[in-house]
């Protein structure tokens, strides 16, 4: 264990805003974790701002800087050598910059540790208390949670500590996760790491709607979940070129109901009424009857133009063809196959498997329609299990959806709710959660954001998006604006109802992380990962 470096001294401030003078030559970074030892207390604090300070007046600083800038030219012209600047009060030597000019760091308290245990910061450290960098030993009092889900390593500024960060997977996955970041900051990499870790657990099943076909690793040279040591827990569905061990995705048309279109496809009121009228009259054959222009006998009649629009949109959305005599299927929806597909997927999720659905070949609306169909089946099953009082015996189900504003955005929900918004509001009561991934959290209503009890915030450069995240965070992030904007690729902050404080992490690069795990399994190491690592988590804390 290396000796902790002294960073500076506490010189002034107030609760939540401690000012530290940085020691000359000691580097302090935005987002860095430091330790202030005051009496018998140890306070872990975070750097939230940095600024210059000087004992010189602003006028004298301008004069000194001017002389520095112009000194070379003056020496050439006049042959003069400036050693000091005469001020009104004293001679200020230019070499004494480390004493007269310095950096101040603004800190906020995270937790206080003393003989009474661990608690939020509610007192000030002593005046002139030393500030030092944090070490693994300072967080060694925290133990592993039950059902851990790994996210990354503890980060202090740009430095990474050898301390693994985990939260209780059952709580986090059932109470919804939001992953937010600007493009290129590592959302997909984080998701892949989480899926790899969750796959080896028995407490959760994960449904992944994968619009870029990036998590399974279909190509032989691409490492992905297909290479997981527990690959028997991976189920992969694709419409085209299914590799060995995968399944061709087909869904029978009769499984579709009007409710599956709700909030995914926008209909006018007459069009929606027509959908339900056909469903009530023709049952599982309702779509075929609309396309074949069958007349409604019991449910009255609709304007021919309305039916024509509904027919045209269904043909487009479901990739169907009608030549006036025969209905043919060009895409994932079929009239001859896929009768058990949705049921099979739901069963696999109940067996705590990770189910990846390649939606890269579909229109966006088709992807969401498939997700709506499966999600509705899962939620209805789990609602039934709750009524039967057997829900606690079932694994958590988490549904991963990218570009979340497509189904959780304000404009979408203003036109009506959908299965995804229903799960966001009520799913935790039935052990069904969402993992929503987005670049634009500001488009999601505040009510939905508040229900995302765990947020993993990666680099977010747009101010409006940062503000939406800060306002809906589980912990106070009001001082983290600059920190969030400066996060590099793979750096993140976890804020969660199941964490004691907002925690900075470094997410491992997925391919390296996966290869390391594969190698460990090749050596037949039987211990589960969480017993092989020193894990930083937020449950079962003992001092």
3D architecture notes:
This protein is of the alpha/beta class. Helices cover 31% and strands 27% of the residues. The protein contains 17 helices and 26 strands. The strands form five sheets. It has a 13-stranded mixed sheet. Helix 5 packs across helix 7 (304-317) and helix 8 (341-350) packs across helix 9. The chain is elongated. The protein starts with 5 loop residues before the first strand and ends in a 7-residue tail after the last strand. The relative contact order is 0.15.
N-end to C-end Cα span: 20 Å
Could you tell me the strand content as a percent range? 25-35%
- What is the global morphology? elongated
CATH architecture of the largest domain: 3-Layer(aba) Sandwich
The percentage helix is 25-40%
The CATH superfamily of the largest domain bears the name P-loop containing nucleotide triphosphate hydrolases
Rg value: 29 Å
- The count of β-strands is 26
What's the CATH class of the largest domain, please?
Alpha Beta
CATH topology of the largest domain: Rossmann fold
Helical/strand content category: alpha/beta
Q: How many domains would you count in the coordinates?
A: 3
Mean residue pLDDT? 88
User: Number of helix segments?
Assistant: 17
């Amino acid at each position: 264990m290396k000796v902790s470096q002294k960073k500076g001294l506490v010189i002034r401030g107030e609760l939540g805003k401690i000012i530290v003078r940085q020691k000359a030559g000691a580097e302090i970074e935005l987002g860095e974790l430091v330790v202030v030892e005051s009496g018998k207390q140890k306070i872990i604090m975070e750097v939230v701002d940095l600024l210059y300070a000087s004992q010189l007046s602003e006028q004298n600083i301008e004069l000194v800087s001017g002389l520095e800038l112009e000194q070379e030219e003056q020496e050439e012209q006049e042959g003069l050598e400036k050693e000091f600047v005469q001020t009104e009060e004293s001679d200020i030597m230019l070499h004494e910059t480390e004493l007269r000019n310095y950096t101040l760091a603004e800190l906020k308290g995270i937790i206080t540790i003393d003989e009474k245990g661990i608690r939020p910061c509610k007192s000030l450290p002593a005046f002139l208390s030393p500030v030092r960098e944090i070490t693994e030993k300072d967080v060694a009092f925290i133990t592993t949670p039950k059902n851990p889900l790994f996210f990354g390593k503890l980060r202090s500024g740009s430095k990474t500590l050898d301390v693994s960060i985990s939260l209780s997977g059952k709580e986090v996955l059932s109470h919804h996760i939001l992953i937010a970041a600007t493009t290129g900051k590592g959302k997909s990499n984080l998701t892949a790491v989480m899926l790899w870790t969750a796959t080896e657990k028995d407490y959760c099943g994960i449904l992944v709607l994968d619009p870029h076909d990036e998590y399974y690793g279909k190509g032989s040279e691409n490492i992905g979940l297909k290479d997981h040591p527990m690959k028997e827990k991976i189920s992969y569905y694709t419409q085209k070129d299914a590799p060995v061990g995968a399944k061709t995705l087909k869904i029978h048309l009769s499984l579709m109901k009007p409710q599956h279109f709700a909030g995914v496809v926008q209909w006018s009121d007459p069009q929606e009424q027509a959908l339900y009228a056909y469903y009530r009259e023709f049952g599982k054959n309702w779509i075929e009857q609309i396309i074949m222009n069958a007349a409604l006998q019991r449910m009255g009649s609709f304007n021919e133009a309305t039916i024509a629009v509904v027919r045209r949109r269904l043909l487009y959305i479901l990739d169907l063809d009608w030549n006036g005599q025969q209905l043919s299927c060009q895409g994932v929806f079929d009239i001859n196959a896929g009768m058990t597909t949705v049921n099979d997927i739901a069963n696999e999720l109940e067996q705590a498997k990770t189910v990846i659905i390649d939606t890269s070949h579909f229109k966006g609306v088709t992807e969401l329609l498939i997700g709506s169909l499966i999600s509705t089946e899962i939620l209805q099953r789990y609602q039934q299990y709750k009524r039967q009082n057997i829900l606690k015996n079932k694994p958590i189900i988490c549904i991963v959806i990218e570009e979340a504003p497509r189904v959780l955005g304000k404009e979408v929900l203003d036109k009506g709710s959908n299965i995804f918004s229903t799960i966001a509001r009520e799913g935790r009561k039935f052990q069904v959660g969402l993992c929503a991934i987005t670049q634009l959290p500001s488009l999601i209503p505040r009510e939905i954001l508040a229900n995302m009890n765990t947020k993993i915030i990666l680099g977010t450069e747009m101010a409006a998006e940062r503000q939406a995240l800060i306002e809906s965070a589980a912990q106070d992030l009001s001082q983290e604006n600059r920190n969030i904007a400066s996060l590099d690729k793979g750096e993140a902050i976890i804020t969660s109802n199941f964490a004691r404080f907002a925690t900075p992490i470094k997410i491992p690069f997925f391919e390296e992380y996966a290869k390391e795990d594969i190698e460990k399994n090749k050596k037949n190491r039987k211990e589960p990962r969480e017993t092989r690592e020193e894990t930083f988590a937020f449950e079962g804390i003992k001092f």
